[in-house]
């Protein structure tokens, strides 16, 4: 969800500017971990625990159309490692209902880690989720994964759909 | 979670008596589906959407001790098909933090259906979850499953622990 269908990077950068008055640019954080993206190392974590953060995330460009296209040929599940942030659970559900109303409740999973999720493919931005996945991992481009190249990388939703459709 | 570590049957029966003034006894509902357990067929579903229902569920007898025992030899995940009832998500998380504080957030999963959950064992009261499970299903006794016998049945947590410990 975060970093794949929800644009957490843009939200983090906007919130940092609003809260700290410092504009951080995407090219400045390439290759950094999420807890090192800002001068104040605690900021990102603080934002993730702030009510409203997850409810107001921008949709990742192309995500809505891509998921709709994939649903023609795949059973699509939305899996979010959300349990660390309890206040995010109802926010994430409302966000999905607003932005992805065609995803039914049966296909939504909120978990702690993703190690027990068993699907054929997983599109994720985090190495920690992809490394232990038993199906085919697909790494969605994110600032924090640009220096990791041991999974198949897709740079955007157009590439993700194209890759998956070669596996039909 | 419901019907396994949380005693939903007792809660349903108590709430029905309080709301409708009619006492239903456990032996009267043996073999009935959940939507047929009460004279008013809508009651159980109405309760499940009522704030407070999931937050105040009694703990299933023996569940706390059993989960603690199992955690000595197993990675225990709490998986709840909770997504149909959005108001239950924060309630279920608070309930777990109160009653099972030794279960960390990494090991909690709230989902729609359980078809993508990949563990070695699943203890569940619902045939719909057990029938499609790829590991070893363990059917926890419940009023609505007494006429189903195609999964290994455990009648209580003592039997569940004993069965799992033969698989170490």
From TrEMBL, chains A, B:
Provide the active-site residues from the annotation. Answer: 2
User: Which Gene Ontology BP annotations are present?
Assistant: pyrimidine deoxyribonucleotide catabolic process
Cross-referenced InterPro entries: 5'(3')-deoxyribonucleotidase (IPR010708), HAD-like_sf (IPR036412), HAD_sf (IPR023214)
Highest rank taxon of the organism:
Bacteria
Q: What name does the UniProt record give this protein?
A: 5'(3')-deoxyribonucleotidase
Which Gene Ontology molecular function entries are recorded, alphabetically?
5'-nucleotidase activity
Q: Tell me the protein family, please.
A: Belongs to the 5'(3')-deoxyribonucleotidase family.
